[in-house]
Amino acid sequence: MSELLTSPYNKLTLSGHETFHCRQLWLKKGYDFVNNGNKFTDVEAVVLLGVGKNMVASIYFWMKAFSLIDGEGKLTSLAHYIFSSEGKDPFLEDEATLWLLHYHLVNQGFSSIYDLIFNYLRREKIEFTKENFLLFVQRKANEIGFTQFNKKTAGTDFDVLTKMYIRTTDQVKDKEDTFSGLLADLNLIQEEKKQTSLYSIPNESRNNLPEEIILYTILDKQDFQNSVSLNMLFQDRNQAGSVFGITKNALMEKLESLANNPKYKKYGVTLSDHAGIKELQFVSKPDKFEILNHYYGN
């Protein structure tokens, strides 16, 4: 059975972004818009958001894709935590917040391409082209019996993804560019050969990825009791190794740092090694937002 068949959906969600990648201030703009009691379907949305009709739909799409509004259009706890008037990083000035948003974009699975590329395609191909991706998605669509696959639509999704994660040469020169990809600073997706459009997501040490974000992603899952293995964290779907493209050694070092951090002693956080099986263990699991408070408090 294909791994994709065990994922929580039986269809692929493509498009919805109106061909726009998420811009730097859109999420804050969208948060304030909804927090003030507005709806994206309101006639006044174009005026209140100060963008065109297609961009209104795109902002709505990205708010859902990043887990900032739920299925009923209500703001989530994550949205309030980041973007409220007392939010931790409303203007996305801290790279840790970008890692957090990237995790939710992949984990949410609202836009299938991010789940497919980070959890599946990069396991088969560290280096890939747009055509590799399209063939991969078509194969997965056939496996789950998804008959509405459209190659052109999937191709547009891929173009939007590369704009989100890769900064062009012109954008690198323009430090004030507001159209560059929201997640480009993470350097997750590399453009290996521009002339052949060859991309890669290699495993790296990710020194700029805070250990608190790793712990948050662990605590965000409900499917473990009081211990989680290094192997699972490194290779399972939506876990740190898959989502962040981090090496196993670097992930181990971050877990060791968490276990040795005195702030987490009250939760009984330890790193055990029984017969070569390394596990992060908790006496009591802390609240995931409390862990983020430790990071942003610094």
From TrEMBL:
Pfam families, per database record: DUF4007
Residue intervals of the DUF4007 domain: 15-296
InterPro entries cross-referenced by the UniProt entry: DUF4007
Top-rank taxon, per record: Bacteria
Descriptive protein name: DUF4007 domain-containing protein
Source organism per UniProt: Flavobacterium johnsoniae (strain ATCC 17061 / DSM 2064 / JCM 8514 / BCRC 14874 / CCUG 350202 / NBRC 14942 / NCIMB 11054 / UW101)
Organismal lineage: Bacteria, Pseudomonadati, Bacteroidota, Flavobacteriia, Flavobacteriales
